[in-house]
Amino acid sequence: MNAIYSPFQLGRIQLQNRFVMAPMTRARANPDGTPGPLAAEYYGQRASVGLTVTEGTQPSDDGQGYPLTPGIYTNAHVAGWRVVNDGIHARGGHVFYQLMRAGRMSHPDNTPHHRQGVAPSAIAPGEQIYTLDGMKNIPVPRALTTDEVAATIKDYACSARRAIESGADGVEIHGVAYLVHQFLAKSSNQRTDRYGGSIENRARFAIEVAQAIVAEIGADRTGIRLSPGFTGFGLDVGPEGPDVFRYLVGELDKLGLAYIHIVHYGDEDILHDFRRIWHQAIILNRPARPRDEIGKDIASGLADLESYGAHILANPDFIDHVVANAPFNTADHSVYFGYQPKGPEAGYTDFPTLKAEQEGVPG
Fold first, then answer.
1. Strand 222-226 to strand 170-174: parallel, antiparallel, or no bridges (unpaired)?
2. 147-179 per-position pLDDT tens digit
3. Residue 106 belongs to domain with CATH number
4. Percent of the chain scored above 90 by pLDDT?
5. Count of the separate structural domains present in the chain
6. What is the pLDDT of residue 363?
7. How far, in Å, are 16, 186, 236, 283 from residue 231 at the CA level?
8. Strand-pair partners of 259
């Protein structure tokens, strides 16, 4: 397990260790998409990890899916995120923003313009989504025109530039569940243009998004998150699913991206395939990773970094808990999203550190 504590060169930055804070939607931004008043404290508390990947951050009004999620495309967003970045950097950490365009996982009540969601095809996911008025059925999205696909790709590139302007170290393309994944999946993509049909066509959107961002901010500042085993939200890539992801990863490898971030759901063979295909860093997230296997994937050479979500959410000093083999605080799902009745700190910045617990200081 010792290798996970060692520094690592990721693109143009050196990380202080190989722990990564996975992106986690918290829905605590201001209504205009600027980070909320406690965002800098929340991320700063957890900056002892080598790399922080922020919550999903929309690159445009059309990209928003859920209420109170942050954006990175206006001057106000840039100014708000700069404070967050300063807090992370002051503690020796580094930060990539996760660029998340929700696609069909959206509702007009949740977006600034209250327009219908857009997606590869006009196919609803058959799911409900949270709004400030409660759970509602997700309406059928509008299919993007070919010209609108090009404009959407440009939105990603522009938001990546704004991220760097705000002081971020890079961006991560969100390729799980949302728009990028919706182009990959046959169940959500029935297009007949150059973005639908064959494996190559369905992967084209993800590749062109990555190319556009690389052209804007550089490959060494660009990562992507993928999950070959994800089947939620009505997504089905089809029987050739593993081949889709092998092709996509091979094409992305040619761009020299800083990393791929894999959310793993059980197909060990494809992880080994990625290790052979991919020549840059691999971040591996196993959602149900046992505690005694922390660092195992790095030690085996299967991954270069490991990401953790709920454990870091509930344990701002996660690494201290791991080193001391101390019990973890438990993450309470009921306080994951949105501002809480008990106050803005509840379930966000009020988790006790190990030092505080040992000294008997209330959280």
1. parallel
2. 999 999 999 999 999 999 999 999 999 999 999
3. 3.20.20.70
4. 91
5. 1
6. 47
7. 34, 12, 6, 20
8. 223, 281
Please give the residue range of the domain that contains residue 297.
2-359
Give, in order, the Cα–Cα distances in Å from 253 to each of 19, 40, 101, 224, 272: 23, 33, 22, 11, 15
pLDDT above 70 (res 209): yes
pTM for the model: 0.96
Residues that are catalytic: 178
Q: How many residues does the chain have?
A: 363
